[in-house]
Every structure is written in C-alpha cells, then in structure tokens.
C-alpha cells in the first residue's frame, strides 16, 4: 500500500506516554493538519516516522516497507523541524548546494526563487539568521526537496503575518503543480484551516480525530447576533462555547441547523475550527 502507515505505535519517555497505540495513515498526495496541544505527541510522532527516535512498539510502513533503519525509504521523507543539522558556519547558499547533493530531486533554482520572495539573505550564515528567517530558510529547503512526503513541524515559528501568508500561498501553488503528501503540525489552526484537507487531532498521545476538514466542520455551526436572542436560541441546545463582545454574542453549537428555524436577526455561519479544537482538547 502506498502512503505512510503508522501501526500501533507507542513511545514512552520514563513515565510519560508520548504516543499511545497510534494508528493512522498519511495517504499519497493529500495535505494533512496534525493538531494537538503542547506536549500532545506531535513532534514525537514525526520523529518516529523519520527514524530520529525509535518507537517502543508498533511499526511505520512507507509505501509498504518498514522505515526502521531503511535509508532508501527514509529518503522519500523530508522533515522540517526546529532541529538544525547544518554544520556551524555554513551559509544559506552553501546549504542549498549541500541539499542538492543529498536530495537527488532538490530544485536549487526553486529554493533560490523562494528565498528571494521571502528576501532571505542567502549570503548570511544560517546561525546568524533571526528566528523567523531560520524558519524561512528551512521552508525554502523543504519546498524544494521534492520528496514524496514532506512533514512540517511548526513551519511558521517566528514568521510575521505577511510571511505566513506567503508560505501558505507558495505551499498551495507548489501542491497544485506537483502534488505530494504534506503534513503540517501547527498551533495556528485558523490559518491552516483553508489549506488542509484532512485533520488529525492528537491528545495525550492518542488520535482523537482523523477526518476531512469538511466533515469535522459540518459537525456544528455558529449563531451570532444580539446576546439575549442568541441565549434564547441556544437554551437546550448542545453548546460548544461562546464569545461575547458588547451586546453581541457568537455561540458555537454542535449538530446541524435548518436556517428557517433560526430566529430573524441571528446570523448562521460555519463552525470555527479553532473553537472546535479548543473544545475537543480541553481538560
Ligand atoms: N526526549 C524526551 N525526553 C523526555 N520526554 C520527552 C522527550 N521528548 C518528548 N517528551 C515528552 O513527550 C510528550 C510529547 O512531546 P512532543 O514534543 O511530542 O509534543 P508536541 O505535541 O510536539 O508538543 P508542542 O506542541 O509543545 O511542541 C511530552 O510530555 C514531552 O515532555
């Protein structure tokens, strides 16, 4: 079977269970959002997939082959993460050259073009870059490696809003031109909501949701308007949460809605992914 299959994977650090019998499959040519609160197990999962750490139990299959100590399989996957594996003193443009030697399909021209769009100073040493530009440097590499699987662990760490928007735009353009399997682990949920097709939510090392963004968002709806009217409407309904601003209120509800059942003066809209996430992962 093609894709990355994670089968019954568990990982413990002392008495912390970082991954607890995780079963998921990252299919070919799909964009996934890997969401979870701090310490939920996201990085551990990405590190297990790429053999940076070993699982205590279970296995990872890449296109049907076990990934453990299998270089040929591991070369199909690129993980962008906080760790940097570049020699100290290496300049950005040298790292592009270096990557071209290591990843056979690395597109140096594309990396340079992306770098120039972000105004990344390629003559600088990697270690001298600001936090945001360190991330941008890694984004440029990850977008140019052209491996069938690209995993992003917190790709927009330190990026300003303009650069985050540019990253999402380039990612979608790249994916439309040459699809691959992309996994984005992030805390900026609303920002990726329009980019990701499938959402995987991990909580305390367990997968609690694995469904399309559309399916997940269709589980509820938002009703907004005059606070008193909203309260009257929500009484007796399954309320996920609410926000109040002055006399106005937005209520997040579970279930489906018939617009004609909502009183005049109230507005019905889609559920907000971040609100749903907070509700699902609270406690
Ligand atoms: N090398 C390690 N040694 C000990 N505990 C670890 C180690 N790596 C991870 N953990 C623990 O495993 C759990 C999962 O950590 P992980 O880094 O995978 O979470 P995360 O979802 O990526 O979190 P964040 O969003 O905060 O980056 C946490 O409790 C963490 O403290």
Automatic annotation (TrEMBL):
Residues 4-229 form the ABC transporter domain. InterPro entries: AAA+_ATPase, ABC_transporter-like_ATP-bd, P-loop_NTPase. SUPFAM superfamilies: P-loop containing nucleoside triphosphate hydrolases. The keyword S-adenosyl-L-methionine does not apply. The keyword Nucleotide-binding applies. CDD domains: ABC_DR_subfamily_A. Coiled coil: none annotated. GO terms for molecular function: ATP binding; ATP hydrolysis activity. It holds the Pfam family ABC_tran. Transmembrane segments: none annotated. Keywords: ATP-binding, Nucleotide-binding. It comes from the Bacteria. This is ABC transporter ATP-binding protein. It comes from Diplocloster agilis.
């Amino acid at each position: 079977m093609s894709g990355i299959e994670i089968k019954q994977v568990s990982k413990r650090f002392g008495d912390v269970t970082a991954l607890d019998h995780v079963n998921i499959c990252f299919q070919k040519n799909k964009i996934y959002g890997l969401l979870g609160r701090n310490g939920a197990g996201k990085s551990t999962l990405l590190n297990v997939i790429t053999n940076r750490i070993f699982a205590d139990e279970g296995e990872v299959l890449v296109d049907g082959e076990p990934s453990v100590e299998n270089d040929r399989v591991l070369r199909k996957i690129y993980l962008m993460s906080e760790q940097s594996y570049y020699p100290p003193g290496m300049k950005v443009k040298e790292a592009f050259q270096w990557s071209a030697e290591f990843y056979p399909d690395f597109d140096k021209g594309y990396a340079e073009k992306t770098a120039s769009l972000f105004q990344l100073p390629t003559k600088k040493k990697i270690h001298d870059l600001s936090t945001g530009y360190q991330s941008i440097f890694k984004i440029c590499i990850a977008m140019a490696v052209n491996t069938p699987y690209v995993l992003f662990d917190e790709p927009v760490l330190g990026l300003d809003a303009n650069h985050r928007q540019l990253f999402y735009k380039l990612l979608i353009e790249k994916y439309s031109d040459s699809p691959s399997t992309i996994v984005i682990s992030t805390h900026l949920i609303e920002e990726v909501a329009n980019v990701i097709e499938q959402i995987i939510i991990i909580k305390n090392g367990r997968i609690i949701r694995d469904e399309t963004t559309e399916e997940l968002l269709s589980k509820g709806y938002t009703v907004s308007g005059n606070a008193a009217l909203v309260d009257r409407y929500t009484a007796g309904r399954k309320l996920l949460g609410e926000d109040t601003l002055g006399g106005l209120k937005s209520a997040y509800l579970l279930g489906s809605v018939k617009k004609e059942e909502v009183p005049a003066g109230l507005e019905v809209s889609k559920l907000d992914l971040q609100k749903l996430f907070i509700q699902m992962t609270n406690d």
